[in-house]
Amino acid sequence: MGKLFSISILVLLFISTITPSLAKDGERHSFLQSQKPATPLVRQKLSHLRLFWHDVVSGPDPSAVRVAQAASANQSATGFGTLVMIDDALTLGPELTSKLVGRAQGFYALASKEESGLLMSMNFAFTEGKYNGSTVTILGRNTVFSEVREMPVIGGSGLFRMAQGYAQARTHSFNPKTGDAVVEYNVFVLHY
């Protein structure tokens, strides 16, 4: 019994030396270390991005491809259960030949049984000028037949690091025969 007690004391001493120190608030955090910014944070800027999103589902080189579909999606008027991966062009004007400034990369899922409601998850990955390599991340609900849809901006990278804001989508054109769509996006982003 004495040997077991000695071993228990040694184990407790060992554990107490490797446990994290107390944080300022008195809680233990082994995954958190507070740091001061290398440079002081500057005031946030508000940027307004006006872009045209080209969702091409037809032709020999589509930018939106169905990758999954629930068996019941064929029987659903809304296509509920369908998942589409996208790599859609982002241009300055509504024509696909307009200046390309980035790509909308991610997916949308038909997530509503009652209406044409999408779950959108995409990065606007910019390829032009000083924004080249920067992204804005949008995640939200898009009821495609509403005149204007609003989705949150939940983050970003590069020049849009720590971004927050919202995106408003408005259908510019939709071809019911092909399923191709052009959507105007007005994105309002707070960032450093």
UniProtKB/TrEMBL annotation:
<protein>
    <recommendedName>
        <fullName>Dirigent protein</fullName>
    </recommendedName>
</protein>
<comment type="similarity">
    <text>Belongs to the plant dirigent protein family.</text>
</comment>
<keyword id="KW-0964">Secreted</keyword>
<feature type="signal peptide">
    <location>
        <begin position="1"/>
        <end position="23"/>
    </location>
</feature>
<dbReference type="GO" id="GO:0009699">
    <property type="term" value="P:phenylpropanoid biosynthetic process"/>
</dbReference>
<comment type="function">
    <text>Dirigent proteins impart stereoselectivity on the phenoxy radical-coupling reaction, yielding optically active lignans from two molecules of coniferyl alcohol in the biosynthesis of lignans, flavonolignans, and alkaloids and thus plays a central role in plant secondary metabolism.</text>
</comment>
<dbReference type="InterPro" id="IPR044859">
    <property type="entry name" value="Allene_oxi_cyc_Dirigent"/>
</dbReference>
<comment type="subunit">
    <text>Homodimer.</text>
</comment>
<dbReference type="Pfam" id="PF03018">
    <property type="entry name" value="Dirigent"/>
</dbReference>
<keyword id="KW-0732">Signal</keyword>
<dbReference type="GO" id="GO:0048046">
    <property type="term" value="C:apoplast"/>
</dbReference>
<dbReference type="InterPro" id="IPR004265">
    <property type="entry name" value="Dirigent"/>
</dbReference>
<keyword id="KW-0052">Apoplast</keyword>
